[in-house]
Amino acid sequence: MPYGETAPVRAGPLESGDAAAWADNHHDELERSDTAAAKAEVLHLTCANDLQPIAAELQALTGTLAEPNVFFDAIMLQPALDTLLPKDGIDCVLIREETEDRRLIGLMPLMRRPLHKFLPLPAYRFWDHSQCFRSTPLMRTGCEELCWSAFINWFQGPGNSRKYLHIPLLPRYGPISDALHKTLADRPQIGAFTTSQQTAFFDFRTGVIDAEAILDRAMGKKTRSNFRRKLRNLEKEGTVVFEELTPDTDIDALSDEFLALENSGWKGKEGTALAAKITEAAFFKSAIARAHAEGRLSLLTMRLDGRLIAARTEIYGGNGGFVFKIAFDETLSRMSPGVLLEIERIKRLDGDDRALAFLDSCSAFNNGPFYRVWPDLMTIEHLRLGAGPLMKTFTARLLPPLYWALRPERLKSLIKSALPRWVYVAVQRLRKR
User: Fold this and answer.
1) Domain annotation for the chain: domains and CATH numbers
2) What digits encode the pLDDT tens for the residues 189-245?
């Protein structure tokens, strides 16, 4: 399958492996945007199933990002393209400076989806596959407004037939979100509807990292004493060892241990564990192997007499860390091994030489051990944009009351409570096949 084609003009596939040279030959087919003195052009690629033709450019972009997002940089995006690609593929929008070297300044992976299964209007959605927990687009520092301006011009322009866009899981109050809201404020022809949620977060930009101060801020003395007692009780059952992986760790064997541990709990019973689907297990192993090879992986484990009882994976991007997957032995839940592992991770912040500015739990609201020991919260947005008279009216006026009446979390909760447990579990397993 070719790397990409222009859209909507089908001028031929990209076969040379040189995206910049290909753009030169199709210069008149590109959307353009002017912001003050700066100019940008949009290259819309379909069948974007391989990043190799722009791998060097993407690597250069990753080192200069306004906001890091490990789920969209090459370390995780290429494994996702290899294992989790939808049947109809994805599109990829590249933003380039309109200069002599046409430097890559932005990247947005998109998937083509109907607006709703009961409303099959053509729409776009930032690609948030089952293992993608942030959809912050990649944008070069200082080029955020230029990128959004160019992208919105393309989105509402005649070259794009899909006039509805869903941007899920976008951190609010960062430079990229701020630039998007500023751009939308100047575009009255775009209708927008936004919802938000909160997630556990560590913000280290406000002062010196002090693990004990963080734990004191997150938990009271009684709670901390309770977890110390649980650790002592666990140590009575055997030798407890916390270990961080090293460059010499057999990452393939450790990832198999992790998958087995996760599959042993409720996720395995409900068919939602990574091991329940071959493609998701392959994605996990490929992503953490790449992160380990580049020195961007933390895989902290907790063992009892050599047996893995808790593990957490964290992938670094820029000046931050993103928690990817966690697992613990549910037969020891009374000892709270997942929370004990998070406490150990916090204690190790004092000796971390990465100069982290933040840690993102990438978790759902009030879910997992993070809310027991992480003191900060971050707002995550879900934006829906509509262009043109029809989709603007739908997005700004009709969608909000429909959403609040039929929001997915409410319907899922109603269905789960109405169905017998075994029926719900069977449905979840069928969805994973």
Assistant:
1) 19-187 (3.40.630), 203-378 (3.40.630.30)
2) 999 999 999 999 998 887 778 888 889 888 888 999 999 999 999 999 999 999 999
Beta-bridged to residue 199, according to DSSP, are: 378
Whole-number pLDDT of residue 408: 64
How far is CA 392 from each of CA 180, 184, 191, rounded to the nearest angstrom? 17, 12, 4
**Which residue carries 């993608």 as its tokens?**
132
Mean pLDDT of 56-73: 93
Q: Which of 22, 282, 296, 309 is nearest to 130 (CA)?
A: 282
pTM: 0.84
What phi, psi does 82 have (nearest 5°)?
Answer: -75, -30
pLDDT of residue 416: 73
Token pair of 227 as six digits: 């977890």
CA distance 185 to 171: 18
The string of pLDDT tens digits covering residues 270-318 is 888 999 999 999 999 999 999 999 999 999 999 999 999 999 999 999 9
